[in-house]
Specification:
The chain is mainly alpha-helical. Helices cover 57% and strands 7% of the residues. The protein has 35 helices and nine strands. The strands form three sheets. It has a three-stranded parallel β-sheet with strand order 4-1-5, with helices on both faces. The protein has a three-stranded antiparallel β-sheet with strand order 3-2-6, covered by helices on one side. A three-stranded antiparallel β-sheet has the order 7-9-8, covered by helices on one side. A hairpin with a 4-residue loop joins strand 2 (47-54) and strand 3. Helix 18 (401-415) packs across helix 20 (461-478).
């Protein structure tokens, strides 16, 4: 059979009613056999068996969906109804045999894969079908039921034949064959019905032969997870959207809503029902569909079915007929049902609605008596304790123990992907002086399934969140993503761990973070990690992680990396706020966490001296390096000389250099602005430098100069303006100079224009004459 095929499901139902088998063996995870009563409680389908596995090296999850028309479900439910002994016979979904199947590169050139690709290509060509799904419908779903079993045998024999499967599939087939032989030995002359994917059928027939099994054949043992590993299975609600191949489910058939109609009403009624569903959905979305359009769509579908040799209209006949009748504009891409895969961006809205209508909106529901993992019960208890009610806004005072606990519970649910609330406001970093949070209610679609699936991480909410965060950290390290992107992920994981509670700050998580910081290639991302760790280590008084020795290790590693990267950075122009922030945070670490660092302060200051004097370094980085030294008590005397030298040789870089300097030594520059020391202050020197700039140099450098002085808050800019008025022996309001409504750049351009006009008047001798008038 093929998974989720109504035609195969009908064949299974007829076989059970006709044969009344002693045993019904179904391809599915054998570790669910002890819980088949749970599976048959009376759920609203679709549902799925969710399987999980985790050890030190591997984490795996999988889903085995079941819907009304799944042959596996029909085999289980109808077999149980006639008194047969029903069992799953496949290896548990966490078994290593499935790992190989999840790695496409391992199977890319497999014999079975090559044979399947070539066979389906030839069959589609022979029967004039665009896709395997359309071919399947023609051969089985809308075809006459007579001879269905023989056609299935022939079809799968063409696909598989005698090709040797890959090791993972061979291990599964050998295990399933053991179950079949054991059932034959105990059948006492009655039939044994085996329901498996058609790919495995030829191999299983070869492995088991046609005779009865050996009388001594034992029931196979169900593999248990290795020592130290966690694994298991639970039932979860499922939906038609998840089941749809258009949504990315590779093992299923497309348009489950259509196949539900096909299962319930037959091919003719299913075609009519699909047409009504699509038209109803389009009209509901205010896409006009007239009666004439409907007649044209039906006529086109019937004509296509006749031309394609279909005895009745198939799914693609109906959808192609609708597209032909309703879409008059040229499409930018092929119709999605002419291929396989998810919908791509830019798909015509009418086509999107057609796909959605054929998918259906059914969602399964578990029977109330279905056992749930311990996490589900723990979450319910935690929410009750914290008085969190679904659908209500939650406001947390983080300085209050109850508010903090409520915040941690909600953040743990967020980290695990459990819908229900979204945080609208709250602290965004460890240094953010915000002590309240606001959570708004959000749609809870899929919440029950997500809770059950999150049970794979642990029995308690705090434990599950910590494991999920550690897995995120490992995944970031193993993903092959650029180190800079990885650093951003790890920084986010670190702050999430703090938000979830101090217990989540595991040694594994922080050890991973500290080790990976050394591989980050960018100053900005390194500074992001350093800022998160340093601010939490220094300032946190809410979450309880201030002074954490594990955080100290992250700080130490990141500071060393910042200085190493900064000294090797050459080339480039403009101001990079990320690298300036990285140096500023490294300076803060030298100021406030010097005893944590393996890099001595003297060595860091000496590195900054070399960067400040390196002409190949970016101008903003040179200024920041000088600012770092000045803010640590040395190098301030160099600022005036370096500013004058730079203005003389590269005035266009002056603004970038000042931006770096002000970012690291703003307070020192502002404090020096009003002093009457022996030599000029930097502000006095800059006044002379800017006044001496030519009009062209001034206009070229003005945007960068404005960006540089934006580092000063309004009060400090006012003090600088007062100093400039004082130097010119002018009286007036310094504040009014800072509140001009005009754009300074426009003012500078106007002044340049006036100077040009004045020069032209002088050139032609008009200036004096005009003045006399």
């Amino acid at each position: 059979m093929r998974h989720h095929s109504p035609a195969c499901a009908r064949l299974v139902a007829r076989a059970i009613e006709t044969l009344r088998p002693a045993h019904v063996l179904v391809e599915g995870p054998a570790d669910m056999n002890a819980r088949l009563d749970e599976l048959l409680l009376g759920h609203e389908l679709p549902i799925a068996v969710f399987s999980h596995y985790r050890d030190e090296k591997r984490t795996a999850t999988s889903w085995t969906p079941l819907c009304d028309y799944s042959p596996e479900w029909v085999a289980l439910s109808r077999g149980h109804a006639v008194g047969a002994r029903v069992r799953f016979i496949d290896l548990p979904a966490w078994h290593p045999a499935f790992v190989e199947r999840a790695e496409p590169l391992a199977n890319r050139f497999a014999d079975t894969e090559a044979r399947y690709t070539e066979a389906t290509r030839r069959l589609c060509e022979r029967f004039g079908s665009d896709t395997v799904d359309a071919l399947w419908d023609r051969l089985f779903e809308v075809a006459e039921p007579q001879g269905l079993a023989q056609r299935l045998d022939a079809y799968f024999d063409v696909l598989r034949g005698d090709a040797r499967a890959e090791p993972g599939d061979r291990a599964r087939e050998e295990y399933m064959a053991c179950w079949i032989r054991a059932a034959l030995a105990r059948a006492e002359g009655r039939p044994v019905l085996v329901v498996t994917g058609g790919f495995h059928t030829p191999a299983l027939r070869t492995l088991t032969g046609t005779g009865a099994g050996s009388a001594s054949a034992p029931w196979p043992e169900v593999p248990e997870p290795p020592a130290g590993a966690l694994g298991g299975s639970f039932l979860v609600p499922y939906s038609f959207r998840q089941l749809d191949s258009f949504a990315g489910y590779e093992s299923g058939m497309p348009s489950p809503g259509y196949y539900q109609l096909l299962w319930e009403r037959g091919a003719v009624a299913a075609a009519d029902g699909l047409l009504r569903q699509v038209v109803g959905r389009l009209r509901g979305r205010r896409i006009a569909v007239s009666t004439a359009d409907l007649i044209a769509a039906r006529s086109l579908a019937e004509g296509l079915a006749a031309m394609r040799g279909h005895p009745v209209r198939s799914r693609t006949d109906v959808l192609d007929g609708l597209a032909g009748a309703l879409i008059s504009e040229a499409l930018e891409q092929p119709l999605p049902w002419s291929g396989r895969g998810t919908l791509s961006a830019g798909t015509d809205p009418a086509v999107v609605e057609m796909v959605a209508a054929s998918t259906g909106d059914r969602t399964g529901r578990l029977h109330p008596a279905t056992p749930a993992p311990p996490l589900v019960h723990d979450v319910a208890a935690q929410l009750a304790r914290c008085a969190v009610v679904p659908g209500r806004t939650v406001t947390n005072d983080l300085t209050d123990p109850e508010g903090l606990l409520r915040s941690q519970v909600l953040h743990r649910l967020r980290v695990l992907g459990i819908a229900g609330h979204v945080r609208e406001s709250g602290p965004m970093t460890g240094a953010d002086p915000v002590f309240t949070e606001r959570w708004e209610p959000a749609p809870a679609h899929g919440r029950e399934a997500a809770l059950i699936e999150a049970g794979a991480y642990g029995a308690r909410l705090d434990e599950a969140a910590a494991v999920a965060l550690a897995e995120r950290a490992r995944s970031a390290s193993a993903s092959g993503a650029p180190p800079d992107a990885e650093a951003g992920v790890l920084s986010g994981v670190l702050f999430d761990a703090v938000l979830c509670g101090a217990d989540a700050l595991s040694a594994e998580l922080l050890g991973t973070l500290a080790s990976r910081v050394g591989a980050v290639a960018g100053l900005g991302p390194t500074g992001e990690v350093l800022a998160t760790a340093l601010h939490l280590w220094r300032h946190d008084r809410v979450y309880g992680v201030a002074g954490d020795p594990l955080l100290a290790g992250v700080v130490d590693e990141a500071v060393g990396r910042v200085f190493w990267l900064a000294e090797g950075l050459h080339g480039g122009s403009g101001v990079d706020p990320g690298r300036l922030r990285a140096l500023a945070v490294a300076r803060d670490a030298l100021r406030h966490a010097d005893d944590l660092l393996t890099l001595p302060r003297a060595a860091a200051v000496d590195t900054a001296r070399r960067i400040a004097a390196d002409p190949a370094a970016p101008a903003d980085l040179r200024g920041a390096a000088l600012g770092l030294r000045w803010s640590l008590g040395c190098g301030g005397e160099e600022a005036v000389g370096r500013a004058r030298s730079l203005a003389a040789v590269a005035p266009h870089e002056l603004g970038d250099w000042l931006a770096g300097l002000f970012a690291l030594a703003r307070e020192e520059v502002a404090g020096d602005a009003g002093t009457d020391a022996a030599g000029p202050s930097l502000v006095d020197a800059l006044d002379d430098i800017v006044t001496a700039l030519t009009g062209g140099d001034f206009l070229a450098g003005l945007p960068a100069l404005r960006q540089a002085f934006a580092f000063f808050p309004p009060r400090e800019r006012e003090r600088i303006a007062e100093r400039l008025l004082e130097r010119r022996h002018r009286r007036g309001s310094a504040r009014s100079l800072l509140r001009t409504s005009a754009d300074p750049l426009e003012l500078a351009r106007a002044r340049a224009l006036e100077e040009n006009v004045s020069r032209l008047l002088d050139r032609y001798g008009l200036h004096t004459r005009q003045a006399a008038r």
